[in-house]
Amino acid sequence: MNKHEKLQILRDLVEINTVNNYEEAVAIYVKDLLASYGISSSTIKQAPKRANLVAEIINNDGPILGFSGHMDTVSEGDINSWNTNPFKLVAKDGKLYGRGTSDMKAGVVDLIIAFIELANDENFKGNVRLILTISEELTEEGAKYLSDLGYGDDLDSLIIAEPTGVAKDKLNDYVNSDGVKINSQLKQTLLAKNDLGAFDEQHFIITAHKGWMTYTVTSIGKAAHSSMPSMGINAIDNLIKYYLAEKVFYNSLTEYDDDLGYTVYAPDIIRGGKQVNSIPDKAYLQVKVRTIPQLPNDELIRRLTAIIDRLNKQPGVNLTLKVEYNECPVKCHNNTNIVDIFQKEAGFVLNEAMPLPKVGVSLGTDASEFRRNNPELDIVIVGPGNTTSHQANEYVDLETFYNMTDLYFNVAVKFFEKNLVR
To answer: Of the residues 24, 110, 136, 141, which is catalytic?
Structure first.
């Protein structure tokens, strides 16, 4: 496949608006594309206009390597903040602009192209499963659905093509941010090379990421006229009691992971009351917390419930906890040497200061759902794209877009040279 054909696939996918929906159009496009190369695939419908896609290269009963990416994107936001049409691929100064170019349609396209090239290589004797999911950005429900159907159960290793690049001028801020954990000596070496290098971006390999959990704490009170507040129970007052207790709790946590750091607590929404002359009878707090293996999600829920149970013993307090989403942290075992293979091959393919330094991050991915039903699954996250994800004027570096296809292809070949038997 030549560069023009590769670029056209990305152009087509960016023009399909999949903001938190409509992934079925992408799945059908990919199904037709694969068919044109003699490859069968299955679209797995999950909801109206939403479908996942799975395709396989199976040559024997040996190990299976997974390629995975999500087809949805976040909203384009304020259209006036874009310099280009977010749903048209625009090439300028070696960059490809458009919603989803970085997160993660470029990565999806690179996986698809590598998959096609592997399927049509007579010398390739390995087994690869391509898995494209819906709704990663909000719920990871596509990965959950496919995982429960068993599509990750027999995988030995999984490559997720989320963006892992950082522009050179953002590198110092990135490695020193609270969302990234990197070995201190490695960081110093990288930043020293950054001062001398001529590269535009540095890509990392994510070998660990935090889990996450979103939950709502609701306070039920009793409405009353604001001229007689003692006749009611102020739901906001009791919610604040909980909020203050929760902050003390999170500030007291000592659990720590060498690859991920501490649990990250972020109270995001507090709402209560409907009008200024009535005592509010309902108020709620919504929180998203990033979790680590040393304080598992279930244990965190148990401790939060204990706080609520204690406060509910006070007169007039009526608090409840509801967990909406619950994804566990992920760490790569590297039993299949997938990290080592990526780093070695990146040294040949990517023109960067260092070949894929290892990092742990606070963000979440579909990896949590595939690991849930396959605890020994090796998972790494490497992809084109960068920290412009979720921003206006999102872009992917053109050279990296092309190079990453070669990297995925080479890694797959080397993976099966090192993992000939299960």
So the answer is: 136
